[in-house]
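Late entry, evening session. Most of the bench is empty. Finally got around to the prediction I had been postponing all week. Sequence below, unchanged from the version circulated by S.P.
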Amino acid sequence: MNISIFGATGFVGNYIIKTLTDNDYNVKALVRKNSVSKLSNSAKIKLVKGDIDNYSSIKETIKDTNIIIYNIGIIREFKNQNITFDNLHLEGFKRVLEASKNESIDRIILMSANGVCSDGTKYQVTKWKAEQELINSGINWTIFRPSLIFGKPMHKSQPEFCSQLKRDMIMLPIPAPLFHEGILPIKSGLFELTPIHVENVASFFVKSIRDTNTMNKIYELGGLETYSWKEIIKIISNACGKNKLMIPAPVIFVKLIASLFEKYKFFPITKDQISMLMEGNIVEKNYFNEFDIEPIEFNSKSLGYLKN
C-alpha cells in the first residue's frame, strides 16, 4: 500500500515514517529542500521536495497513493516567516483536500490535538477547523487527538515537551513554578495531563490504516495514567537526576511576561501555550487494547533520554 505524508520531518512524523517502513509500506513525503537532513529514514522513502504552499508539489506527493497522513503542526507562530497556525494547520490542509478530489484516495488520517475547539486559542481553533474541513469533505477519514506527547526526538532540532522542560526549567538554578490562577496558591500545580509516548502515537496512526473500523472516527489519545503538573515536574526531575524545588506561581504574571517576549525565539513559551497548559489535557479513555498496542508508561525509564 502506498502512503503519502505531510509533516514527515517533525518529532512525530519521523516516528510515523519509521513505523510505516518497518511495516513495509511504500512512503512518499513532501519535504522542504533545507529539511531533508531532519529525516531519519530518508533512504527508505520517496521524497518530493517542495512546500505545502505549492499546489503542484502537493499533487506530486499524493499521486498514486492510497492513504494521506497530514501531520503538519506547529506549537507557536512566527508571522514574519509566514509560520502561522492558519497557513500550516488549515490552509495547507485545505490545499491537500482540494488536490485529493481527482485522486483515488481511500482515506485521510489527520493529526489533531486533544482539547481542540471552535472558540479557544489560535492553535486550538485552526486544528478544529481542519477537522471540520475533513469531516465535511466526502473523503473517508480518521482523526487522532493526542494529549502531551513525549519521547526521544530523532533530530536535535525537533521540539519535545520533556526535553524543553528540562532545558528551560529543571536545569535552571531557580525553583520550578507551580502555576495557579488568582493570588492564593490553593490549587497550584494541580492541573492534569495524560502523557502518551511518541512510539505509541505512531503505532495508532499505522495500525489504523488497514483497520476499516477506524474510518470516520475521532480518537483522543493518552497514556494509561493522568498526572498533575506537580507530579510531571517531579517525574521529569527524577529522570534528570535532580531533586527540584517547586514553588507556587500566579499565572497572571507569567502570561504578562510571555505576552511581551513571545515573538522572540529565545523566549520558551507563549501566552496561549500557558493558557492551554492551565486548561489541562486529560484523556479519560485509552484504546491500547482495541489497537493491540503495548503502552509505554510515563516514568524515569521511558524518560531515560533526558539523562544525556
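Two things to note before I forget:
DSSP finds ten helices and 13 strands in the chain.
The radius of gyration is 19 Å.
Will write this up properly tomorrow.
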